[in-house]
Amino acid sequence: MKKLFTTAVLALFLSISINAQEKIYFDENWEKTTQDKMEFYRETAAKGKLTLIKDFYKNGKLQMEGLASDPTPGSEVYDGKVTWYNPEGKINSTATFSGGKQVGPSQTFDDKGRPLEDLVYSADGNFKGKSYMYKNIENESYFNSYTVYESSTESRTIVYDNDIKGIRYETVTDKDGNSETKYYGENGKYIGTSSSKNTDNNLLVEYYPNPMRVSKIEKYKNDGSIKEVVIYGKNGKILQEQKMNKKDGYKTTYDGNGNKVAHLTYTYDKDSDSLIPQEGEDHQFINDYSLVSLINVYKNSSLVLNRFFDENGKLSSEKIIKDDVTQEIKYYTPDGNLKSNITYKDDLPYNGILYEGVTEEHYKNGLLVLSKFFWDDNTLRSEKKLNAKQDGYDSTVYNEKGTLLFAYSQPLEEPEGFTAQVVQYAKGKAVNKSVFKDGILQSGKIKVKGEQGIKELERSGKWIIVKVYNADGQLIQDAKVLADNEESDIFTVIQTRMHEQYLLDGFD
């Protein structure tokens, strides 16, 4: 009896020893790591000819479980159903495998437990089933969608708001990749169809989100050109309608109450074999059609005026044009007052102030006398002034904190390569002086930031000494190149203007 008991205990001990294995620890990228750095860990146990794998989150909650014929991390060969869980313990997805190949049912769920995919895979990699997407305004997903897969290449997708039979559009794709989309409006009223195979009477419908409403309907001719366009406001009223015939056309714009505010006519142009604007105003909208972004004014088939508007719909500038040549640009403040203007001569700035993005340029009798370049917060980034002798420019460059980085002088007619006398500053004090001609360092020393780190250039006789330091100040490159070498320009860093980005980010 004592011998039988001892044998049973020994068998139990051996069973535990065989099945118990050490934990395997993984980091956030599922790379093996140590226990103190782990984000996940794995436990395995023998189940007949297979191995049961259980992965856990750091806090001990189950992350995945499934059987595998090969449990090697990163090379697992699963057999049967595998289930993954989210950190809250809900099922995230399930899949079925045979010899490591996905075969059979597969499901995925969102954080609310709603199905995202419900598919069945066959051995050849094909699948059938359904998929879902749910409206989530916070994540900029504005519509629901529902897709049925007859196969992995044949599907029918419905994109809708709340009622799958209400306002929506439906796209059917066949096994050859051909698609057909049917569009529906309010209460599910059919609007029209777009087909990749049959282009007769094709159209495109766009929708506003939240709630889903028709925003634009475009109808096309058989050659793909536009036949009709109607743009709707969010209140359902027409904002703009356009119709293009063989020999003429028109575009009419309305305000939010349906009142006509502009009309543009088109005429046929034989040379271009197309319809061109003839007379009136062409109003163009921002993406959501809530505001006008641009108005083009035409007279006798010529563009005579561009009116630009800011993001709030306020007039920002007007460009006056004659015979396709700019004559004058006027700039306005948000309250509608004239801010400045600039006249042109021979299509070039002549007198006044020119604004383009973050730059401001002052001209007098065709000569640039002052230019400013600003950071995104409108603080000064660089400034270039015509000197007192009017034979060159004096420039200064600043970082985002307003600290002076560089001061340099250039000739009035800038050569092909950067030519200047440069003074470099650090903490308000001049630290380096250098002279450049045609992009090549002639004398002195300068430091700039490059892709590798801080680059130091110093002229020494016929050589340019190049040193590169990493972010920690360690020297990582020390070389020299002949100054007259054709490839030496790769070390000069300076190409055209001192205020280019990598110089602006330079030594401070």
Helix-strand blueprint:
Elements: H1 2-19, E1 24-26, E2 40-47, E3 50-57, E4 62-70, E5 77-78, E6 80-85, E7 91-98, E8 101-109, E9 115-121, E10 127-133, E11 144-149, E12 155-160, E13 168-173, E14 179-184, E15 190-195, E16 203-208, E17 213-220, E18 226-232, E19 238-244, E20 248-254, E21 260-269, E22 274-285, E23 292-299, E24 302-309, E25 315-322, E26 325-332, E27 338-345, E28 348-356, E29 359-364, E30 367-374, E31 380-386, E32 392-398, E33 404-411, E34 420-426, E35 429-437, E36 440-449, E37 454-460, E38 463-469, E39 475-482, H2 489-492, H3 501-504
Antiparallel strand pairs: 1-2, 2-3, 3-4, 4-5, 4-6, 6-7, 7-8, 8-9, 9-10, 10-11, 11-12, 12-13, 13-14, 14-15, 16-17, 17-18, 18-19, 19-20, 20-21, 21-22, 22-23, 23-24, 24-25, 25-26, 26-27, 27-28, 28-29, 29-30, 30-31, 31-32, 32-33, 33-34, 34-35, 35-36, 36-37, 37-38, 38-39
